[in-house]
């Protein structure tokens, strides 16, 4: 199971469910853009650590809608990671390889790329989400 770096406040989730679709579009766009930037940063971190042999892991890094209970409305919860651009055995292999790279094995030391990428992007992600949320709040007050 993947570790979560950002948890959404349940009260905020409930508020999001009450918004009409046209107001959530701005949040969706911000989330999608920030998720793409995080995926790009993860690829940079892999390259910086010399963890590229075939390029298959880097090519598999992408963004997908969250597949669990955090899936609020289409596009408001996403996962960023390895294997999203693959199917079947390749998907499982890339996810396992990403896990081994991030945490290491008994034979190989860890070469983390997910946590460092997130730490680099974290402040910008939160600022962008705050700006988008503030804009949506202003729009809801005007209705």
UniProtKB/TrEMBL annotation:
Keywords assigned: Plasmid
InterPro entries per UniProt: HK97-gp10_tail
Protein name per the record: HK97 gp10 family phage protein
């Amino acid at each position: 199971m993947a570790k979560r770096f950002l948890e959404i406040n349940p009260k905020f989730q409930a508020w999001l469910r009450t918004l009409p679709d046209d107001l959530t579009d701005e949040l969706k766009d911000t989330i999608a853009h920030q998720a793409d930037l995080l995926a790009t940063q993860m690829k940079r971190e892999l390259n910086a650590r010399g963890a590229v042999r075939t390029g298959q892991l880097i090519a598999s890094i992408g963004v997908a809608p969250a597949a669990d209970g955090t899936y609020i409305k289409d596009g408001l919860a996403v996962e960023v990671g390895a294997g999203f651009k693959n199917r079947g055995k390749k998907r499982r292999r890339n996810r396992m390889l990403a896990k081994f790279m991030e945490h290491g094995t008994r034979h190989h030391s860890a070469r983390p790329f997910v946590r460092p990428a997130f730490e680099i992007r974290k402040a910008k992600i939160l600022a962008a989400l705050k700006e988008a949320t503030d804009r949506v709040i202003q729009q809801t007050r005007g209705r």
